[in-house]
Amino acid sequence: MLLWIGLRPEISEAMETAPFWIKAGYTFMLGTAGLFAVERLGRPGATAGSSFAVGMVTISVVSVAAAVEIFAAQAADRDQLWLGSSYLICPWAIVVLSLPLLVAALAILRQLAPTNYLAAGGAAGLMAGGYGACVYSLHCTEYGLPFLATWYTAGVLFVCVIGILLSGLLRW
Question: In whole angstroms, how large is the CA radius of gyration of the chain?
Answer without folding.
Answer: 16
